[in-house]
Specification:
- It is a single chain.
- This protein is α/β, with parallel strands linked by helices and about 775 residues long.
- The chain is built from 20 helices and 27 strands.
- The strands form five sheets. An eight-stranded parallel β-barrel has the order 9-10-11-12-13-14-15-16. A six-stranded mixed β-sheet has the order 3-2-4-6-5-8, with helices on one face.
- Helix 9 links the parallel strand 12 and strand 13.
Length: about 775
């Protein structure tokens, strides 16, 4: 053979060897997939592996088998040891790497939870939704599963502890569990079978901490045998809410196990003993201890009246609680995760100079309606214990509950959480998710924001929404659903479905707030909103006709029930408002009421009653959920002037560092202004005086400072406008019910157009729109 021939042969051999090594990893239907696993693998790793095997069976009809033999296409699962410090993920909390290497698929975790998340990532790659059980999202079956030869992903959380609070569970999660899913002779018992389902969802969503259900209707988490052990099996840390220090569900446990009054001024010995029992019991598990003290439930502490007295009591409480942690959990109490939550009245105590130990996490809270009440200052940001947040996507309380449908704007959630993250709130995020259902999307979005900085900093929330809908329903349907969900969130932003009766809750001195009455909208505005709902309803109904029977329960839970119930609630309440004015038949409202009941019964009876008792369309039996009073009569508001203009951020010019937030606000493009940024636009000429209303997204300042802008209008003196609110003021209540903070300026007539400039003098200013009316 000549030299040319030998060269061709050698090249061919090299190419064939290279191609053999570079082949994709392919797993065929029905095959046995071999894996290697550390002998000392943690329970959470073995749990995740078992879940993944179930997913393989449902998608590929494949199984797993452990093998130490050499070969390719194996899963090699490994958790880094303490001496493997040079690995790129070694120093990162709960990180993992998945890599196709030398014909094998390697899953490496920086710790046990990281390894478990890596295994669960394989399920995602396989096409299994985290909602495979909780929303009956059946994965598509495959003939083969292909992993590209160069596949590599490394992931680590943006926030160290990411979790949920199951709360206000009286009308959903609690009765569903003990009456249906895990029947019990003990009323209100939520046991390990239920929490296993919760923990499996959390593991799939990369959540690592739970605040368990704690209302008086629920037997406390630690009172039920097997709950704590189940959490350990899934790598879940247990914490407790702002009124449950040291893992005790005070509202239920104190009446049963406490002695005397829950009062640390006059009964500290018995209260401390109450805490000690639980710390001793749970010392061997994963805990994030809440320290401090409030009342028995969501109220002020007993025994101390003034802020100074309360501050002194809390500092004594801190000392005694940390002594218990040091005695039972770890001799170095500072090494045990602890959090202090300055929620509601406790924030005032903290701001008065309360000394919180440096290693304790400070948890900052929203105002219960999605707006962060405060942010840590520079000194607080540098704390050893770090900072966390507690955020609501479901709420019971003043000025009105929203416990039924999940309707918080994703754009608002992302904006507020990014702002918190940028203030170094990165240690722990807890989301109040009510009963979990029907908050599936918002729950996952919140946890994805806590996991992935790229998602957190992407100011177009539609990217995530489309990705989620594509995973659940396919790309074609997702493209049709994105604008429909945006319409749902936009209409809810203007008025949540629970707020449509113009009622309030817990306004004990004003019984008039319990009576359904007209919203401050003209008949024209009501009619326009009803038309939007009608259009939304028809489009959802058309899409529903295209859903095959196997996917109908999945579709109904995630799309049809919330959308159609929302539209029916609008018809019920706004149809009644028009009927009170003689502009519509009462039947519009009464039929809509029946539709909501029918939709809810369908939810609870589908899948042979799997979700029976989970969905309640009238939590707390509030008047807004009841049949309307068909005997009422009222006068409509005068129709607004025809001479009305709106200026949105895209209609003007703004500073380079300012940015529009897609889908936020009435304008659906609210403008986030940094301190010093300005927005300018042109006002219309008018032969009449004008009222210019500045509408802001009702955020709160980072600390005690103001929210202030400077307004310059051609021909007028500059004016300074502030719009911050304090506590539960009447203005704050109106702001969160309508999601706008309003300030107005009156201008004289002008035959010329005038330029208006609005400059942010403080941080956290978000301008929604300008509303101009001729007087």
């Amino acid at each position: 053979m000549n030299k040319i021939g030998w060269s061709i042969l050698v090249i061919s051999l090299i190419l064939s060897i290279t191609q053999a090594k570079a082949q994709d990893i392919v797993y065929e239907r029905g095959e046995t997939i071999y894996y290697e696993l550390d002998q000392d693998a943690a329970p959470v790793v073995r749990t995740a592996l078992s879940m993944f095997e179930g997913d393989l069976d449902s998608v590929l009809d494949a199984s797993l088998k452990k093998s130490d033999k050499q070969g390719d296409r194996k899963l090699i699962i490994h958790t880094l040891k303490s001496n493997e410090t040079k690995d790129s993920i070694a120093s990162r909390h709960e990180a993992f790497r998945i890599e196709a290497k030398e014909g094998n698929l390697r899953i490496t975790g920086s710790d046990a939870n990281g390894t478990a998340y890596g295994i669960m990532e394989l399920s995602r790659m396989l096409g299994v939704s985290p909602w495979v059980w909780w929303a009956d999202s059946t994965p598509k079956r495959r003939e083969q599963w292909v992993i590209k030869t160069d596949f590599l992903t490394e992931q680590a959380p943006a926030v160290l502890y990411r979790g949920i609070f199951i709360n206000d569970e009286d009308w959903g999660f609690n009765p569903w569990s003990w009456k249906n899913y895990e029947p019990s002779d003990r009323e209100g018992e939520v046991g390990p079978k239920t929490y296993r389902a919760v923990f499996e969802l959390m593991l799939r969503l990369r959540a690592n901490i739970l605040w368990p259900a704690m209302h008086e209707v629920t037997i406390p988490f630690y009172f039920v045998e097997g709950n704590r052990e189940m959490a350990d099996l899934y790598g879940i840390t247990i914490g407790t809410s702002h009124c449950e220090p040291l893992q005790r569900s005070t509202p239920v446990e104190w009446p049963l196990a406490g002695k005397g009054d829950y009062d640390y001024v006059n009964n500290s010995k018995n209260v401390c003993q109450f805490w000690e029992e639980r710390v001793k019991e749970v010392a061997g598990s994963n805990n994030y201890f809440t320290i401090g003290m409030r009342g028995v439930h969501d109220g002020k502490m007993q025994g101390a009246k003034t802020i100074e007295e309360q501050r002194a009591v809390l500092e004594r409480v801190f000392k005694d609680q940390r002594a218990l942690i040091g005695k039972y959990a770890h001799s170095d109490a500072a090494s045990v995760p602890q959090v202090f939550i300055p929620y509601k009245e406790v924030l005032d105590i903290y701001r008065s100079g309360l000394e919180v130990p440096e290693d304790v996490t400070l948890m900052w809270c929203d105002d219960n309606y999605g707006y962060m009440r405060s942010q840590p200052n520079e000194l607080e940001q540098a704390r050893k214990g770090g900072n966390g947040l507690y955020y609501h996507i479901s709420y019971w309380g003043r000025p009105h509950d929203y416990l039924w449908l999940a309707s918080t704007s994703p754009a608002l959630i992302r904006t507020e959480l990014e702002r918190a993250y940028n203030h170094q709130v990165q240690q722990i995020w807890i989301f109040n998710v009510g009963d979990i259902k029907p908050a599936e999307y918002l729950l996952e979005y919140c946890l994805d924001l806590a996991w992935d900085k790229e998602i957190l900093h992407n100011r177009d929330s539609n990217v995530h929404l489309k990705s989620w809908l594509t995973r659940e329903f396919g790309e074609t349907t997702a493209c049709k659903l994105v604008p429909l969900w945006n319409e749902y969130y936009a209409l809810s932003y203007q008025r949540r479905p629970e707020f449509l009766g113009n009622t309030r809750t817990e306004e004990r001195s004003e019984p008039i707030y319990n009576i359904v009455k007209d919203l401050p909208w003209s008949d024209r505005e009501v009619t326009e909103r009803l038309k939007s709902c009608e259009k939304l309803e028809k489009e959802i109904q058309q899409l529903s006709l295209q859903v095959d029977e196997p996917g109908r329960a999945h579709w109904f839970q995630l799309v049809e029930y919330p959308m159609l119930s929302f539209c029916a609630m609008n018809r019920k309440m706004l149809g009644a408002q028009l009927a009170r004015h003689g502009k519509a038949a009462w039947r519009v409202s009464t039929v809509a009421f029946d539709e909501i009941l029918n939709l809810t019964e369908r939810y609870n009876s589908m899948l042979n009653g799997k979700w029976r008792y989970m969905m309640d369309c009238r939590p707390r039996e509030l008047s807004v959920f009841m049949p309307v009073d068909t005997t009422q009569i009222s006068l409509p508001l005068p129709e607004p002037s025809e001479k009305k203009w709106k200026i949105s951020p895209s209609d003007g010019e703004f500073s380079n560092s300012a940015y529009m937030v897609k889908e936020l606000g009435y304008s659906r493009e609210a403008l986030a202004l940094q301190e010093g940024d300005a927005f300018s636009a042109t006002l219309p000429r008018s032969s009449e005086a004008l009222t210019v209303t500045l509408a802001f997204v009702p955020t709160h300042p980072a600390g005690n400072e103001r929210l202030e802008v400077k307004v310059d209008i051609e021909g007028e003196k500059p004016c300074y406008i502030s719009y911050e609110t304090y506590g539960r003021s009447e203005e704050w209540k109106n702001n969160v019910l309508r999601n706008q903070a309003l300030r107005s300026i009156t201008l004289p007539p002008s035959s010329k157009e005038r330029k208006i400039s609005i400059q942010a003098l403080t941080a956290a200013v978000i301008l929604d729109e300008l509303i101009i009316r001729a007087m």
